[in-house]
Design brief:
Strand order of the largest sheet: 1-4-3-2-5-6
Bound molecules: pantoate
Structural class: alpha/beta
Shape: globular
Radius of gyration: 19 Å
CATH superfamily of the largest domain: HUPs
CATH topology of the largest domain: Rossmann fold
CATH architecture of the largest domain: 3-Layer(aba) Sandwich
Helix content: 25-40%
Order of helices and strands: EHEHEHEHHHEHEHHHEEE
Length: about 280
């Protein structure tokens, strides 16, 4: 197993990728914040299938955390991450410091309307997507990757990144990869480690509720009634709900009957101190 090069500056990243590009090899980028789990590894494996070379970035991006959020305590497990990325066949790991990404005097922010203002995550994390869009734009420009892979678990983030790459004419294909789940349906997340034993036992109800609401809507129940049932089920189980919404899967706009377009159910809720998000497609046959 070849150890990937570990690169920490933009100059070194460009120097490492240049020979691959000269040789006509395609490059896939997997942006991460580390604390890697099987979901991230599935993105790395998909990157290897989509391009000749795969680069993963590991950077806990300060600008996407609000001051009261968990930036300081976000799990940092670089050595274990490197082992997993090596096993997944990643060719290079870009792990810059905050000073490399945001040197003194840094003054640019990429902020969007559209899916970034869908009244979902943005209602509760108003500065989050500008931080995400800014760092992802930088990573795409720094790597000049042909494709970039993001998990569908962060569904609004994926829509924001697609919109940003399109609006900025970035010559990259953005690929969304299916959410990887624990055996009981809980979506894998680096933040699941914050759940205590009792919360972990209840956490799969988030996915089970999405499935139940999706089934009800697919069976013809009024969406508002199905959503109300889902919201109540989560409250009864001790979740503090931020939102449970049915949206257009591409624009994340509010939808009304008759539903003609692909639909997505999205949820965010707190269990104790841990905020969980999840989403699934709603298939109308
Ligand atoms: O999804 C994440 O881990 C982050 O938001 C990303 C895309 C790596 C940007 O920091």
């Amino acid at each position: 197993m070849n150890k990937p090069a570990v690169i920490s500056t933009v100059v070194d990243l460009r120097a490492a990728l240049a020979p691959w590009r000269r040789a006509g090899e395609t490059i896939a980028l997997v942006p991460t914040m580390g604390a890697l789990h099987a979901g991230h590894i599935s993105l790395a494996q998909l990157a290897k299938r989509k391009a000749r070379r795969a680069v993963a970035s590991v950077f806990v991006n300060p600008t996407q955390f609000a001051p009261h959020e968990d930036f300081a305590k976000y799990p940092r497990t670089f050595e274990a991450d490197l082992e997993r990325l090596t096993a997944a066949g990643i060719d290079a790991v870009f792990s810059p410091t905050p000073q490399v990404m945001y040197p003194s005097g840094f003054a640019t922010t990429v902020s969007l309307e559209g899916p970034a203002k869908a009244d979902l995550e943005d209602r509760f994390r108003p500065t989050h997507f500008a931080g995400v869009a800014t760092v992802v734009a930088k990573l795409l420009i720094q790597s000049a990757a042909d494709v970039a892979i993001f998990g569908e678990k962060d569904f609004q983030q994926l829509a924001v990144i697609r919109q940003m790459a399109k609006d900025l004419d970035l010559p990259v294909e953005i690929i969304g990869a299916p959410t990887v789940r624990e055996h009981d349906g809980l979506a894998m997340s680096s933040r699941n480690v914050y759940l205590d034993t009792e919360e972990r036992r209840r956490a799969p109800l988030l996915h089970a509720t999405l499935q139940d609401v999706a089934r009800r809507i697919a069976a013809g129940e009024e969406a508002d009634a199905a959503l109300a049932t889902g919201r109540q089920a989560l409250a009864d189980a001790g979740f503090v709900l931020d939102y449970l919404e049915l949206r257009d899967a591409a624009s994340l706009a509010v939808v009304a009957k008759p539903f003609m377009q692909p639909l997505r159910l999205l949820v965010a809720a707190k269990l104790g101190k841990t905020r969980l998000i999840d989403n699934i497609a709603v298939s109308l046959s």
